[in-house]
Every structure is written in structure tokens, then in C-alpha cells.
Design goal:
mainly alpha, 0% strand, elongated
Length: 64
């Protein structure tokens, strides 16, 4: 099965250039998830990560 991202990469690079102002290097260094987030920002009503939540996650990661 052909990789769907690879098959659409040229088209997606053009969309990123026109709508996001990305240069080719920006596009090729981004992940598909980066592109998705840039083109379809998260819902504004979605809960944002608080600084306390971030600190808790960082502490948990540090301690394994």
C-alpha cells in the first residue's frame, strides 16, 4: 500500500506554502501532526494545559 502522506506531499507542501507561509524546509522538517495542527487549530473550547498540569507532567517524567 502506498504511503498516503508521501502520495500527497507535493500538494500539501503547496497548501502549507500558500496558507501558512512555510518554505520547503519548514514543510519537510514538520511532522504530519505539525501540519495538521497548523491547518486545523484545536477547538478554542477545548481545555488548555495549565502551567500546574505541565509542571506535574514534567515532574512525573523526571521521576520515571
Amino acid at each position: 500500500m502506498k504511503n498516503r502522506f508521501a502520495g500527497q506531499a507535493t500538494k500539501l507542501a503547496g497548501i502549507a506554502a500558500r496558507h501558512l507561509g512555510w518554505r520547503p524546509d519548514d514543510f519537510w522538517n514538520a511532522t504530519p501532526a505539525d501540519l495538521m495542527l497548523a491547518l486545523c487549530p484545536p477547538d478554542e473550547d477545548a481545555a488548555m494545559l495549565s502551567r500546574d498540569d505541565l509542571n506535574t507532567m514534567l515532574e512525573r517524567d523526571r521521576n520515571g
